[in-house]
Amino acid sequence: MAVDAADAELVSKMLKRWAGWDRVPDDVLGQLNQIAELLDVKRKRSLFRRGEPGPGLFLVKSGEFKLSLISSEGREQILYLAEPGKMIGEGFLPRDVQCAASAFAMADSEVYRFETDAVVKLTARSEALAFALMRHMAFRANRLIDLVLDLSLRSVERRLASFLFTLAVRNGAEPGKQTVIPRQLDMNTVAARLGTVREEISRALNRMQRNGILNLSRQEIVVLDLSALERVTYE
User: Of 42, 47, 80, 116, which has the most beta carbons under 10 Å away?
Assistant: First the structure.
């Protein structure tokens, strides 16, 4: 369905958090809101799948999505997770180009969709909009390159330590203080995100617990030594 005034205001607010979007004129953002469509996506349903035509650009309103690849053997590699306020650009493609990844809802979610052709027409009228989209695509490409480097050059323990360090910082971690990380993702999801299997994640967590870096429970992970956790990411 088309977005109302409250949704239009939220879209503009979310987009302006990203670098370059603060330079997009308000009238262009207004035109972008006019082409926006709000979709309800149930848990485990897809926005698009690998091999399908791209349905457009997306902005997450609520819930969470995962961008992933699934091998012929059924093994999943999560490319990234998209929570509220994040854009999903892997479906923003010319009609003759197929999606290279799939996007699935991890919970009942809402997402704004901007149809590709309509967005392209707007970029022809606004250099600032084209630049903002280009910045986003470049950022996402750089993150995927980082992921390739992680998978090819870093051990599972280093990848996991880096992942946990990032979560700890998001949860207000400070050197010398313990930090609680709620277990919001299951082991299979963490493993898929880090390009391994849950058994390897379990072994790495247990090693860090034995070394006094973490304390584990079913509900949370407590970071006991933030500096030691950071050192593991570079070992």
Answer: 47
